[in-house]
Prior knowledge:
Bound molecules: pyridoxal-5'-phosphate
Strand content: 15-25%
Structural class: alpha/beta
Radius of gyration: 21 Å
Organism: Micromonospora mirobrigensis
Catalytic activity: (8S)-8-amino-7-oxononanoate + S-adenosyl-L-methionine = S-adenosyl-4-methylsulfanyl-2-oxobutanoate + (7R,8S)-7,8-diammoniononanoate
CATH architecture of the largest domain: 3-Layer(aba) Sandwich
EC number: 2.6.1.62
Largest sheet: 7 strands, mixed
GO cellular component, one term: cytoplasm
Amino acid sequence: MTPEEILAGDRAHVWHPYATLPPGSPPYVVDSAQGVRLRLADGRELVDGMSSWWAAIHGYRHPVLDAAVVDQLGRMSHVMFGGLTHEPAVRLARTLVELTPAGLEHVFLADSGSVSVEVAVKMCLQYQRAVGRPERRRLGTWRGGYHGDTFHPMSVCDPEGGMHHLWGDVLPRQVFAPVPPGGFDDEPDPAYLAALTDTVRRHADELAAVIVEPVVQGAGGMRFHHPGYLRALREVTREHGILLIFDEIATGFGRTGRMFAAEHAGVTPDVLCVGKALTGGYLTLAATLCAPEVAEGISAGGVLAHGPTFMGNPLACAVANASLDLLRAGDWAAEVARVGAGLRAGLEPLRAAPGVADVRVLGAIGVVQLDHEVDLPRATAAAVAQGVWLRPFRDLVYAMPPYVTDDADVARIAAGIAAAVEAG
Ligand code: PLP
């Protein structure tokens, strides 16, 4: 198909994320991707500032990851997981247990981040029923979060400013505390801490679990917060028999400078969701891990009632194994710190630019917050003109590049952000 035919077909038939049909502005036609570059059908090459939404941490067409998929294809691409098991899934479960904070022992392989959150919620509701507290059905969280697009995840996104405010009258009513104040380096606010723990205590009899994104709130606003808030949540939830879920779908596998963001706080949740970078961005796979107490509680009451058709897909597990081996074999922490330092150097000067409200960097994540809503098509086009792929949203222009992005390309991404800020 010619690029024009692709665009015409796209306009006629294809839904895009958070889009009308046809979309408000046409997408860019991408032909291939290699290293940290996307190649458009018109021949332009763009340095990818987005890692395909946090996922492609090793870049594209990595020979080790390509080989893992090809090798697995030669054995089997998929088999059902009911009644069958296989080495790629078992190896992956073992690696996840090793890598994640100590105390998480059991792994449910889901097929997307949203599903892994659904499974986490289901685990917590089933656990509370199994231990004789069926009235504990609600979830607690703080505002400003994003946990996915299916119904339980939507119910714990911010009901007012968030991406799912349309659904306020349909979603289960959850318990919300305000957004944690300050940034990553700002000491926890004692008044907020008291209000947060008080909210949890007041609703203890109806809360099955508290769910949060640790340290970085992603699609809900790209905010960073002090790990002390997580320690407070760990204590108060444990005190009241409420389970704690950390959603590390965006933050997991090194993005914040620690393998998992929970490590900044030194706490282990009862349930942990991972996805996105799990397969290095190659295939759709996510996982929900839980502590033995949760698994034992559920199993005493019966089966965990979930079983997707593509659960434990061997191709996805094989490439996840290769991606995690690659991550562990390299000095990922140094790479993340280097990318972060480059983003900081490139973005700090933007603090003085007109319309900029804040600049923040953590791990390999760089964010410029504006004092107004970004004009998405204009901002994107300005970055593309600089040879950079970005996807700004609301008042945010930001990047989380692949860890393998070299210094010159990190500087280019920062220049792309500057151009998007100026245009947007
Ligand atoms: N949770 C978090 C923190 C996310 O950032 C996302 C996706 O952006 C999700 C859940 C949902 O994951 P998926 O898009 O794979 O369903």
